[in-house]
Amino acid sequence: MGTLLELNQVYTNIGDYQILQGVDLTVPEHAVSVLLGRNGAGKSTTLRTVMGYWKARSGSIEFRGQSLLGLPTHRVARLGLGYLPEERQVFANLTVRENLELAGRKEEERRQRTEYALTLFPDLRVAWKRTAGTLSGGQKQILAMARLIVSAPPMLLIDEPSKGLSPVLVQKLAGVLEVMKKVSTILLVEQNFQLASRVGDCFSIIDDGRTCLSGQMEELAGNSDWQRQYLGLEAVKGGGLRQWRSF
User: Fold this and answer.
1) Hey, how many other C-beta atoms are within 10 angstroms of the C-beta on 212?
2) Residues above pLDDT 70, as percent of the chain
3) Per-chain mean pLDDT for the chain
4) Strand partners, 26
5) What separation in angstroms does the CA of 162 have from each of 91, 190, 195, 205, 232?
6) Do 180 and 148 meet the contact criterion of CB atoms below 8 Å apart?
């Protein structure tokens, strides 16, 4: 399995604040790499730095061996990186159908991928002619995910996709991510540890703007000391299931 994206000692400032202070990250191809850490650790800033929204002050960022440093966001996207931010960016004045049509691809391929997305998310079929601005927060998140399915770039950067979704939709989202990694490499920021541990193949943890731990997800899932130390999680028994909560 080759490396698709690699960050080495990336430092990023936002104004006078130094947010990233040495992020190292290796993302293998056709896998789900999960970026974890407490709130404010620098996870979203890492994704935005890769996409060129924020400029790295130093370090290296390479996608398929090509440097992304200094490239504007539209050029990064053209290289094959798709980005789903936490803010659920959809075209509010366009219908669900029009949002999916703008996802690109050749017409026949787009129709096939759209039909697949509608099979996964039948609520979008019901809302087919509604404008995206009238959808609920969860429906907008689903629409944004559906657009990624239709466009299917070589690599996806996804920030907190489960935020605001019902438990039923989170379970469906997990299945979608497992299918999507067969055609796209995924770098996922996710606070829901149950979801992250289910879909993730490998992980990196950022603390105070630095990468402090990386490895295979099964190692982290089986190590409660790491979970407590780096993520502030503790095991809770309830209803016969292992649940998690933040300190």
Assistant:
1) 15
2) 94
3) 89
4) 6
5) 20, 7, 8, 19, 19
6) yes
